[in-house]
Amino acid sequence: MTALVTRVPYADWLRNRTGLQAAALLGIVVVLLVFFQPDALVNYGVTLERVAAVGLVALGLTPLLILGEIDLSVGATMAFAGVLAAKVGSSPELGLLCGVLAACAIGCVNAFLVTVAKVSSFIATLGTMIALQGLALVVSAGAPVPIRDLNLVLQANRDLIGQVSAGVVLFAIGAGVLHVVLSRTRGGRDLYVVGGNLTAAVAANVPVKRRTWGAFIGCSMFAGVAGAMSTVTQGAADPNLGSTVLLTALAAAVLGGAYLQGGRGSAIGTTMAVLAIGAVSVGLELRGADASIQQVVVGLILVVAVTSNRDAARRLRRALVRRRLRGESDGTPTRSGIAEGLPP
């Protein structure tokens, strides 16, 4: 007699540590805040506003990390887009559009360098990061650029639902759209195939270059939207705004379950990790801790979360062994990446 196996609806999700790790972290942070700093939860609008811009950048990084690539220029892209939004155009709306379009163009440059010029994403985006940091300072003359329409600033900072502002709503929309793209569309599922096994993806006729272009452009677009949003909510564009955004956004994506080797990650996990980091920062700030202490705590959380993920450690060891074997087989060193057609 054939045994019938009843599938538990949430079994797959529980096995997927991409969401579980971030959910556990967020739950622990909330419990600690309830006992030690409840004001951070009562005034939840402050926490949500704090994480909205960084959250958009982290969401943009997630598809790239799933693909096995990285974009180090997201912070500089955010700052440059914000400066253009405040500086260019006869109206604030036109300036915001110019900032986002410029960010998309930056994504095209990064994708070209990786897929056509065969430069590793780390080196390519490191170069664009340095260039964009200089451009932001040149365009802004090294000083914050105020936005001209103060009414737009007031509307952007007005609460729409409870303590939720327009920027938080934009972050929520971005998380929802990315979740649908990654989980419900063919293009999103292709990212996992490419990041998990590039050779299998090529054999299955997955359009690797097209997916890479889409991921880089989408990542820069999210950063551009974050920069434009920060310009409006703060009333001015700061050319140094993105100096710490990259590390915080990358930490959120990794805490959310994304693997730097590719093949794993989710919009929901990244969103929960962003909320957890924001809650920790706000809680520490309310208790009088300065920014340096906040960075130390976030860094320790990231280290503990990554080192506790044994599956990620095993994947890393296997990847290093494969790369060494490939290097010894032809007598030359190799490097992984989509640009060279090697599996992660």
Keywords:
single chain, 344 residues, mainly alpha, ABC transporter involved in vitamin B12 uptake, BtuC, two-stranded antiparallel ribbon, disordered N terminus
Helix and strand topology:
Elements: H1 11-15, H2 17-36, H3 39-42, H4 44-67, H5 74-87, H6 92-115, H7 121-140, E1 145-146, H8 150-156, E2 159-161, E3 164-165, H9 166-184, H10 186-196, H11 198-203, H12 208-234, E4 236-237, H13 245-255, H14 267-286, H15 291-307, H16 310-330
Antiparallel strand pairs: 1-4, 2-3
Can you give a write-up of this model?
- There is one protein chain.
- The chain has helices at 11-15, 17-36, 39-42, 44-67, 74-87, 92-115, 121-140, 150-156, 166-184, 186-196, 198-203, 208-234, 245-255, 267-286, 291-307, 310-330; strands at residues 145-146, 159-161, 164-165, 236-237.
- It is mainly α.
- The protein has one domain: ABC transporter involved in vitamin B12 uptake, BtuC, CATH 1.10.3470.
- A two-stranded antiparallel ribbon has the order 1-4. It has a two-stranded antiparallel ribbon with strand order 2-3.
- Helix 5 packs antiparallel against helix 6 (92-115) and helix 5 packs across helix 12.
- The termini are far apart.
- The model is unreliable at 1-16 and 328-344 (pLDDT under 50).
